[in-house]
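Now for a sample.
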Amino acid sequence: MAAAEFSKVVQRARNAFKGGLTRNVDFRIQQLDNLQRMCVENEKQLTLAVQEDLAKPSQEASLYEVEFLLNDIRCMKQNIREWVKPETADKNLITILDETFVQSEPYGVVLVLGAWNYPIQLSLSPMVGAITAGNCCILKPSELAPKSAELIKELVPKYLDPECFHVVLGGPEETTELLKEEFDYIFYTGSTRVGQIVREAANKHLTPCTLELGGKTPVWLDDSVNMEVACRRLLWGKFINAGQTCVAPDYLLCTKGVQEKVLPAMKKVIKEYYGDNPKDSPDLGRVVNNRHFKRLLSLMKDGSIAVGGDHDESGNYIAPTIITDVKLNNPIMKEEIFGPLFPIVTVEGVDEAIDIINSKDKPLTLNIYSKKQKVIKKFLDNTSSGSVCVNDSIVNLSMVGVPRKYSFDTFSHKKAVLIRNYAMIGEKLGEARYPPYSPSNEKFLKKLLKKRPNLLPPHMDYVGVFIGGFLVALILKAILHFAGVKYF
């Protein structure tokens, strides 16, 4: 699509937003209903597109792409009327008789740049958040998952309002042109390198944006756990989608003693999952393209291959691979792996593991496999990460409501609102702010503005104002009397 066409699409969306249609909550719910129907009626097509792009197993494509998206939609529909309600805000003595609240309002026209590793979920789930918050949206799916992108482009106009919601396709050149347009918000999921480009483009228009970037997810594992159960959970999280998951375990930190116990358990679990020859397993995906395949092969040179290591360039196949004798300065420890390679770094104990985690960029998530509460608390208190999952991997993404509410909040501007009344007591309290200024008025205002526990509920109705006015006057008079201020 040419730059001129991008401009037309953005303008159409902006005109639609100015028309006010997306501010209507019933309209938003209708669009969510339509998107849900799109997923249900075309689940097989969506699943097949993902399988063609990534050779993703049918169960992974169905559960972690379509069903994950459907759960997002269901949650948004169940909660939208509550989320759009004004949120109560604290009052001070000056605003005690007034209405104070925070109102969520849409930004306007938002741009969502999807990712290739979960091409349905990571394109349409952010769009669900944008719709729920009342925005018009332009979606650009990743060109690295072309079948999924083309299918989204085909389906969305059939189900969603064609003026409010648009899908555009293209590679790096087209994305560069698209980013020259002015948006009200940009959401991008992907690599740090591209994230820097998106941020730079957003800065030209002072556009707020969310960058959900990859990182090295560390794992701590000690000998207090059931080793086989821990490995089943850990390696499931590592090898779904052939390791191409942004919150997949990236490297394991453990003592040498634990490594001796965990390697046989890992070998057993990998055989249980994928058989003697994982290449023939229908349950193991493939690396997205040859460029990433070659990148991963170069990382396999670090350390010693303890399990796996087989590969086939013709199908971008790499077996689930466990690598030992890895050093912190090896290339495999300097970048997000994003593939079926799992290095083990041995440490002396918890303190060294924490030091290693803190020496790197903050991860999207941290996995802790331990039954020791002191160990768990030590990691929670002394590391920083986007999320934490204890004694499992990736399952934290299924926490009901938490990510969905944050998605609504991400695409909402939080507007503080004060509605003042004309009650004489309020005006009397506020007179001290008017010129001519004086030291006594300044002292009086400082006492009024001082943060105190709320004296009245944040939402006092008008009847409450009249009924409570006399009581409030007495309370204020007493407070000011004991504060030494002679005003009444």
In short: The first helix runs from residue 3 to 18. The chain is about 45% helix and 15% strand. Confidence is low (pLDDT under 50) at residues 461-468. The first strand starts at residue 87 and ends at 88.
